[in-house]
Design a protein that fits this description.
heterotrimer; A mainly alpha; B alpha+beta; C alpha+beta; B: alpha+beta; 44% helix; globular; C: Alpha-Beta Plaits; three-stranded antiparallel β-sheet; two-stranded antiparallel sheet; elongated
Chain lengths: 348, 395, 213
């Protein structure tokens, strides 16, 4: 963005709009790929085939789904609160999309290179809670309200482990700016924060167990942020029909769905940027560069997304009070221990 | 009756009013939710009216009758006793052979005919195969209720092999009309014994895989242990039977305690719940009883296949089925519990009255008692562990 | 175990059982799928498969056994007695056919595929085939009419039957009158009248409309 300082007002505006639409393009393409991937992975884990008839092995199915959703009738029930009902999907999507501004896709492409990157992401993605509560309330459906309230409780309580895990990464690198955190981990796979970062050898070996635990806890907490099994109580299909978006159909539902997938990549991207080296190549300077950076980032993000899908199709669901128990009594104490331990080791 | 909360009168001026200043209590009302006839997790068209206080259940009122198909009335209008058998199939469509077995036994006892030994052994083999198939549905859908979608697919994969065994024998996959009064409709095809043995060897490691994936998964254990505890006296007072009864630790199985067919010649034992992961009689116990019963059924099938005698399966089929006037009640152990048929005959070829005592109907009546105080998420699991099939509940 | 011990034990159990579950699912990624991609590949039905009914009407002797055996009353049969001068032929199992079958309808939508109609048939003309793809757009097309008699055939058969019955009734009246006139002694043993009529069957409905059940 610094290159465009000599332009006039309208040109700047145009350039801003175009550049900020790029993550949107990425999200849409990524959503199409991930929807297909999820169904195919789920099917092969269950010894069956999924889509086979639209295109070769069903690759055109997400497009077919999209076209079908576009032409669906827009049903809003009479008793629903119209304004909130219509506004809710946009707020949920906005909460996720705004956080994409601070994700470092590559060394030259980051929406907004702010010094508070990590903090900004955690803060803005809490908007999703507001959207979900709106969706549940405005549907005027008891099951939706259940899903919305559960979801609000879940997301709020899992912000704490997420923020604490972020704090650990910040402690080691010394900056909240995600580009700087990524550049801190340059030089190959041994410098990734999950393996301790580019610290002196003794400190590195002492720190590794704690960073591994921190990464796992960050991953688990981010699963809860995205409402994926085993934390998918808000949309527990077998209990609440579809939870907070039961009443939505057509494109509004599609927006929720895309928002959920966008959120999946967001939290995967944050975990990758903080702990798995972001857009840095694992081989040091071999295969690195601005375009390669984008490739590595997306690949690492997709690996984490695959693990999320894998977990969804393996595990049963947790109950609301067990979810709270895990957040407050397991993840948070472990993170406190990690913070203290890593702090001590860094000071040594 | 629903307990209504009463607050001291100086706090509340009208019902539902909320006063929120320091020291005064917030009054909460109970919400009535309808887990309606169409719902992804009630196994069939069952309507559960749930009175909740937040997420805690205060009362559950089941409403049934959405699948009533007048089985007993149809039975009175059939030309002979043989024609009732397709209707018996459709009572519990997930375990049709066991329904037929019970009815056919009742009529045979009324007619006082003895079927050849080969028929008895084949009936036992088919009943146990059907028991495995029915339990696979039960545990598979139970996994879905808990949120695990994959074990269901694995269970149905195994069930396909059982259904193809049935199809090879009598031509139908789900509703067989295979047991006839006095015998069977077809003898076993020549490749049946080999394929059945193959199935038994294939199935044993699959049970272990299923257990690893679902039953001993810590999340599943935490969801199901100490949930929906059915104490022994409550179970007996409500006349529960089948895995519900055995899960509460009561050692009662009709195949051993009121023996019929050739179960007394085969070495097997009923499985009971011991409260390994929580309390005796909780949802996990009922689940593990079903898993272990499947292993036991495999043992029974292997022994029966080895001891299968020769004979003509249609030797004892009577030309005319005309029992003497009288009544009889016969019961057998189906995958869901004790299925009884009470038949009154008036001496003609048409039954005067056929009443089916369905285990799912009786087991369902215990649902409100064991789910009070739990959460809605628990209610879904408890209803799944009762293992109801609405065809049998509503007849 | 102490509370702390239980706490750590729970965490260990959770992680280990999750890992075992994940190993099972990922191993199934490499197991061959079990799907049969219908309609490109169809499974072969076993030889005893009980699917759509088929009636070989040439073999049907009109005995109505299958219709009585059906628990859901999906078979409708009407017959017309044939006169002695008509030769309807024999079935493939060697029985002589004595009845016309103008109406033989099976409402396959009512059929419950129990197979109770197959054993009673004396000529094995009703069988359950292995055809399972017979969906129709119009429900009336699910009523299968197996009879091959045209309406002229049916009229002819009816007319013939009526004539034969009238002749027989007239003959009977004449012989009864003659017997009365001759005033035979009551001790005379009556000779069994020669049976020229086939065994009694349900009398046909005079509507004569095939295809209505």
């Amino acid at each position: 963005m610094e290159a465009f300082q000599n332009l006039g007002f309208w040109e700047t505006l145009l350039v801003t709009v175009v550049l900020s639409a790029l993550p949107l393009v990425f999200i849409l393409l990524y959503a199409l790929v991930t929807i297909y991937l999820e169904m195919k992975v789920a099917a092969h884990m269950q010894d069956r085939l999924a889509y086979m008839r639209t295109g070769w092995h069903g690759v055109l199915q997400p497009i077919a789904d999209f076209i079908k959703l576009l032409q669906k009738e827009d049903i809003i029930s009479v008793a629903a609160d119209r304004k909130l009902f219509i506004l809710a999907p946009y707020i949920v999507f906005m909460g996720t999309y705004a956080a994409y501004a601070a994700i470092p896709f590559s060394s030259i492409f980051i929406g907004s290179n702010i010094d508070l990157g990590a903090f900004f992401i955690v803060a803005v993605s809490s908007l999703v809670v507001v959207g979900i509560l709106m969706a549940g309330w405005a549907s005027n459906n008891k099951w939706s309200i259940f899903g919305a309230v559960r979801s609000a409780a879940q997301m709020v309580s899992y912000e704490i482990p997420t923020a604490l895990a972020l704090l650990i990464a910040v402690m080691i690198t010394g900056s909240l700016n995600l580009q700087e955190v990524t550049q801190f981990q340059s030089g190959g796979i041994q410098n990734w924060l999950i393996f301790g970062g580019p610290l002196p050898l003794l400190q590195k070996i002492l720190v590794i167990p704690f960073t591994v635990i921190t990464f796992l806890i960050l991953f688990v907490a981010s699963l809860a942020e995205v409402n994926r099994t085993p934390f998918d109580l808000p949309e527990a299909e077998s209990e609440l029909v579809q939870g907070y978006f039961t009443e939505y159909s057509g494109m509004r539902w599609a927006l929720f769905y895309v928002a959920e997938y966008a959120n999946m990549f967001l939290v995967a991207g944050v975990a990758v940027a903080l702990f798995l080296g972001g857009w840095e190549s694992p081989f040091g300077s071999f295969l690195s560069g601005p375009i390669w950076g984008m490739f590595w980032f997306v690949i690492k993000g997709m690996v984490l997304v695959f693990v999320q899908i894998w977990l969804r199709w393996t595990l049963p669901r947790l109950r609301v009070d067990q979810l709270m128990y895990i957040s407050w009594k397991v993840l948070t104490p472990f993170l406190f221990v990690c913070i203290i331990a890593i702090g001590l080791i860094l000071v040594l | 009756m629903i307990e209504t909360k009463t607050l001291p009168t100086e706090y509340v001026t009208d019902p539902g009013a909320i006063k929120s200043s320091i020291g005064k209590t917030l009054r909460t009302d109970e919400m009535i939710i309808n887990m309606g006839p169409q719902h992804p997790s009630t196994h069939g068209v069952l309507r559960l009216e749930i009175v909740v206080d937040g997420e805690i259940i205060v009362d559950v009122i089941p409403h049934i009758g959405y699948l009533h198909r007048c089985f007993e009335k149809h039975a009175e209008h059939m030309i002979n006793y043989q024609q009732v058998i397709p209707y018996c199939d459709r009572l519990d469509y997930c375990a049709a052979i066991n329904e037929e077995h019970s009815y056919v036994l009742a009529v045979e006892r009324m007619l006082k005919i003895e079927v050849p030994e080969r028929v008895e052994y084949i009936r036992v083999i088919m009943a146990e195969l059907q028991r495995i198939a029915s339990h696979l549905i039960a545990v598979g859908t139970f996994g879905i209720d808990a949120g695990a979608f994959t074990p269901f697919l694995y269970a149905f994969h195994d069930r396909e092999r059982i259904l193809s065994l049935f199809e090879m024998t009598c031509g139908a996959r789900l509703l067989y009309n295979y047991f006839w009064i006095g015998g069977l409709s077809h003898d076993l095809p020549p490749q049946f014994v080999g394929k059945a043995k193959e199935f038994c060897t294939y199935f044993k490691p699959r049970i272990k895989e299923f257990n690893d994936l679902l039953t001993f998964n810590e999340i599943f254990v935490k969801r199901t242990a100490n949930v929906g505890v059915l104490p022994k006296d409550v179970a007996i007072n409500y006349a529960c039977s089948g895995p519900m009864l055995r899960g509460s630790g009561i050692n009662w199985d009709l195949r051993r305690d009121d023996p019929y067919s050739v179960y007394h010649k085969i070495e097997w034992e009923p499985k009971i719940g011991k409260g390994e992961m929580g309390t005796v009689g909780d949802v996990w116990d009922r689940h593990i009883v079903r898993m272990r019963e499947m292993e036991e059924s495999v043992k029974i099938i292997e022994q029966a296949l080895a001891a299968l005698p020769e004979g003509n399966v249609q030797a004892a089929i009577p030309k005319r089925i005309r029992p003497d006037a009288g009544e009889i009640y016969t019961r057998t152990e189906t995958p869901r519990g004790e299925l009884g048929f009470y038949i009154i005959s008036d001496g003609s070829g048409t039954p005067y009255r056929v009443k089916g005592r369905s285990p799912a109907f009786v087991n369902l009546s215990v649902l409100p008692d064991i789910s009070r105080g739990g959460m809605i998420a628990d209610l879904v699991l408890i209803a799944g562990s009762v293992d109801i099939v609405l065809g049998q509940v509503d007849r | 175990m102490t509370a702390v011990g239980i706490y750590f034990n729970n965490i260990w159990l959770a992680l280990s059982s999750i890992a075992i579950g994940m190993r099972i699912t990922i191993s199934h990624l490499f197991v061959k799928n079990v799907t049969t991609q219908y309609p490109d590949f169809k499974l072969k039905m076993p030889e005893r498969a009980r699917n759509r009914l088929y009636v070989n009407i040439d073999d049907c002797i009109g005995c109505d056994q299958c219709s009585m055996a059906c628990p859901v009353d999906c078979i409708t049969i009407e017959t017309i007695k044939s006169t002695p001068d008509q030769d309807l032929g024999t079935t493939s199992t060697g029985q002589k056919k004595r009845l016309h079958v103008p109406v033989f309808d099976i409402d396959i939508a009512k059929c419950c595929y129990c197979g109770l109609c197959v054993p009673p048939c004396p000529t094995d003309c009703i069988v359950m085939t292995d055809v399972y793809e017979f969906s129709e757009f119009d429900r009336q097309n699910l009523i299968y009419n197996f009879s091959v008699m045209t309406s002229q055939d049916i009229e002819q058969a009816r007319v013939k039957l009526k004539k034969a019955e009238e002749e027989a009734a007239a003959k009977k009246a004449a012989s009864a009158a003659a017997a009365k006139a001759a005033a035979p002694p009551p001790a005379e043993k009556p000779a069994g009248p020669p049976q020229s009529q086939p065994p009694s069957t349900p009398t046909p409905d005079s509507s004569g409309q095939p295809g209505k059940s």
